[in-house]
Amino acid sequence: MQKFILPPECIDNQTAVITGQDAKHIYKVLRLKPKDPIHLTNGKGTDYDAHVLTIGPGKVEVCLTEEHPSTTESSLRLTVCCGMLKDKKMDLVIKHLTQLGIVEWIPFFCERSIPTPDSNRLLKRSDRWHTIAKESIKQCRRSCLVSISEPKKFQDVLELSDSFQQKIAFWEKSNHPLTQLPPAPSDSRVIILIGPEGGFTDTEISLARRKGFKAYSLGPRILRAETAAICATTLIQHLLGDI
């Protein structure tokens, strides 16, 4: 069964109330009944075992029987920065990166990004990304919400990378395979850069290198930008995380 996100303000001692679309899903799709078990999380790393007390199409009341730390979060604190792509491609990226266990997603504009949309459209896209990430978290039974940044300029992303211990840029011109990637301490923060359609320019990679990024290759084939983002995250989670 999928895990439902329960904000702390919905909890009162050992009981909690689920409303909105989640309540509708539990009632109409899962067809749970009183006393049926249900799995919940506060979105901050704490999980709850619970059972249903009362249920209806708009409200589900549950009893919390046990509280425990999550066992589904990655040990790797991975931030993925992606060059802006067309609408549906970005939706696909955040959906799958959430399932792969990232803790932060930062979209950015650089030289080869698509034209910048107006602020209203950008706000709607950001709202949709948050919704997609929440649905992915429930589906894959994670316990922590992904931090999703508003789209930034490439230079701003480089500036915020100072707090990371390991910095990786994926670039099709690099001759460094990931087999050369050094191990990361268990408590380190890792940031990776994925370019837009067309990739990074030589100038952008040069700027990234000045900020401590090392460029690595994803192999001899040129991948689509959304494929590269998913592939790179999977490989880093395999080498440094829990996959």
Note the main sheet: 7 strands, parallel
Overall form: elongated
Helix content: 25-40%
Low-confidence blocks of residues: none
Could you give the order of the helices and strands?
EEEHEEEEHEHEEHEEHEH
Rg is 20 Å
What is the arithmetic mean of pLDDT? Answer: 93
Count the strands?
13
Distance between the termini: 21 Å
Structural class: alpha/beta
- Alpha plus pi helix count: 6
Fraction of residues in β-strands: 25-35%
What does the model show?
- The protein is of the alpha/beta class and 243 residues long.
- 32% of the residues lie in helices and 27% in strands.
- It contains six helices and 13 strands.
- Strands 7, 8, 9, 10, 11, 12 and 13 form a seven-stranded parallel beta sheet that branches.
- Helix 3 links the parallel strand 8 (104-109) and strand 9.
- Helix 2 packs parallel to helix 3 and helix 2 runs parallel beside helix 6 (225-240).
- The longest helix is centred in the middle third of the chain and has 22 residues, at 119-140.
- The two termini are 21 Å apart.
- The relative contact order is 0.16.
List keywords for this structure.
alpha/beta, 13 strands, elongated
Task: Give the topology, please.
Blueprint: E1 4-5, E2 11-12, E3 15-19, H1 20-29, E4 37-41, E5 46-55, E6 59-69, E7 77-83, H2 87-99, E8 104-109, H3 119-140, E9 147-148, E10 152-153, H4 154-160, E11 166-170, E12 189-194, H5 202-210, E13 214-216, H6 225-240
Parallel strand pairs: 1-4, 7-8, 7-12, 8-9, 8-10, 11-12, 11-13
Antiparallel strand pairs: 2-3, 3-6, 4-5, 5-6
Helix pairs in contact: 2-3, 2-6
